[in-house]
C-alpha cells in the first residue's frame, strides 16, 4: 500500500511537471518596452530603447526633459500626440508658420522622410502643406505652365483662406485680387505630401511653410480654426501578426541587433516567433524546464521499474 501511494504521489509530480512545461511563461509577462515621456505613452510599434518596438520605427523617438521628439532626416519635431487607435502622430516644430505667425528665412524643417521609412509612415492625405514665398524658379512652378500649378485645396484647406490669417497682416502686405501679388507665382501654394513627396524648403526654394490637418468630420470656418501641425499616419505593414502572436503568449515585441529581424522577448529568452513555440534565439528558462522535466521523467521510470521488480 505505501508503494502504491508513492507511485500515485510520483504520478502527481509527473503530471504537474508536464503542466508546468506546457503552460506558457506568464511569470515574465512584464512589458519592458512600454514607457512614458511626459504624459505620452510610448508603446508598440514605437519605443525609446533600441531593440524594442518595430524596426521600422527604430531611432525615431527620443525623450528629452519629458518632451517627446521625433527625429527624421529633415530635422526634429515635437510629438504632441500619438493616437494608437487611429495610428497617427501629431507633430510640431517652432519654425513652422501658423495662423498667428509666419516664419520666413528658410528656417523651418519642412518634412522629409527617409525612403526606407516611407512604407511605415507618411503625412495623412488630409494634411495640407502650405509653401510660402517660393521663388518663381522653384521646381513647384516648373512644368506647370499657366494655371496648371500643383497648388490646390486639400480637405477644404488652402491658401485662399490662409491669407486671412493675422500672420499675413504682420508681414505688412495687403492682399490684392485673387492671387497675392497679381502676376507671377502665388505667394502661397498648398499641396498634399504625395504630390511632391518631400517638403524640402531648400530644394523648393521656399522661405517658409505651414501645415494643417482637418479634425474630420468637424466643419470649421476659417484658417483661424484649423489645427496646425503635421499629422502622420503610421503602419507596420502586415507585421502585426508577429507582434499579436508574441503579445498573446506574454511576450514583448522587439527586433534583433541587425535592426531588421523582429524578435519576441519572453523574459529570459528571445524567440523568432512567440513565447510558446520553438525557434529560440537563446537558451533560457524553457530549455531548463525541458531538462528538469526529462530528468524527473527518467527518475520516475527508474523508480517504477524498480517497484515493479520488487512486486
Ligand atoms: C514587473 O516589473 C515591476 C516593475 O519594474 C517589478 O516590480 C515586478 O517584479 C516585475 N514582475 C515580474 C514578474 O517580472
Ligand atoms: C499632456 O500635457 C500637455 C501639457 O503639458 C497637455 O496640453 C495635453 O493635453 C496633455 N495630454 C494628455 C493626453 O493628457
Ligand atoms: C533579447 O533581445 C533584446 C533586443 O535585441 C536584447 O536586448 C536582449 O538582451 C535579448 N535577450 C536575451 C535573453 O537574449
Ligand atoms: C479653395 O477654396 C477656396 C475657398 O473655399 C476657394 O475660393 C478656392 O477657389 C479654392 N481653390 C482651389 C484651387 O480650388
Ligand atoms: C534638400 O534639398 C537640398 C538641395 O537639393 C539637398 O542638398 C538636401 O540634402 C535636401 N535635404 C534632405 C533632407 O533631403
TrEMBL record:
<dbReference type="GO" id="GO:0030247">
    <property type="term" value="F:polysaccharide binding"/>
</dbReference>
<feature type="domain" description="Wall-associated receptor kinase galacturonan-binding">
    <location>
        <begin position="33"/>
        <end position="91"/>
    </location>
</feature>
<feature type="signal peptide">
    <location>
        <begin position="1"/>
        <end position="19"/>
    </location>
</feature>
<dbReference type="Pfam" id="PF13947">
    <property type="entry name" value="GUB_WAK_bind"/>
</dbReference>
<dbReference type="InterPro" id="IPR025287">
    <property type="entry name" value="WAK_GUB"/>
</dbReference>
<keyword id="KW-0732">Signal</keyword>
<protein>
    <submittedName>
        <fullName>Uncharacterized protein LOC101498661</fullName>
    </submittedName>
</protein>
<dbReference type="GO" id="GO:0016020">
    <property type="term" value="C:membrane"/>
</dbReference>
